[in-house]
Amino acid sequence: MLRLIDANLNRASEGLRLLEDISRFIINDASLSAALKSMRHEILGEHFSLQKELLSARNSAEDVAAFAEEKMRRADLPAIVSANARRVTESLRVLEECSKLPDLALDPARFKQARFALYELERTLTGKLLRREKRIAGLYVIIDTEIIGERDEVEICHQAIRGGARTIQLRDKTRSKAEVLAGAQKLKEVCAQYDVPFIVNDYLDIAIASRADGLHLGQGDLPVSIARRLLPIDKIIGCSTTTLEEAVKAEADGADYVAVGAIYPTPCKADAIVVGLERLCQARKAISLPIVAIGGIDIENAPEVIDAGADAIAVISAVVGATDVQDAARKLAERIQKN
To answer: Does 302 score more than 80 pLDDT?
Structure first.
């Protein structure tokens, strides 16, 4: 029995350490890493009273499965997370049941609590890894139906991406939900052809129905924390912010990127609060998420915005308002890349 307990404690600890390191070094999530570290320490703390007995009972050399070759390959990091989380939960279940024996000084409730906590931590970590593959950077083009007027949004999307747009967002405040959905579905198809993330502004239902890659929310929209629970775990959430407090809260609530602006006065939104480059610099120091700068950015001022800490630059009129959308996108994307 002691060999069984020792083996499962080690297995659980090893699996948790791998999940902890992925959280720490790959997705740079301090809170998730800390939660996994705390769980690992709590589980290991359970064996202190039996430490001598467990070490005495250990016999790895004669373990019939110790050196068995595992032939299954992992497709990607989410698959590695899934395999190791399963290994940990299985070990915790074994430890929970064994702890119910009267002659062992172990608490089965602690193992059960850790097992259920890990189910949620696995979901969070897997979601972050899946969304990490859709990282927002470079030129972020917003297709605003008010700005494009009667022009074809699908063709504008093609031109923007061919010019160098690395993210497309649909912003539609004028049409019915049925029309917005139809447009979103078409743009999603275009973006999928180029492997470019497609984001829907404001509408959670449209984002889900169109199978968009994400949703962008303003301060007056559905809270990020609620949207995070309702969206599939692989969908991105962006959040518009004007204050440092809003940016920090967006990160804590589960946003995948934060938009900061308006950086400069913008003709697309006359009542926009202009926060300037200083606010962008402050946000860069305060949060680890990708930052999308927005508001009055053009080919002339784009370099200083990138220098201030922006990972991406969001534009409307500078690209979709141009006569030649592809050329405007190309020039702006090249300016960003040179910086």
So the answer is: yes
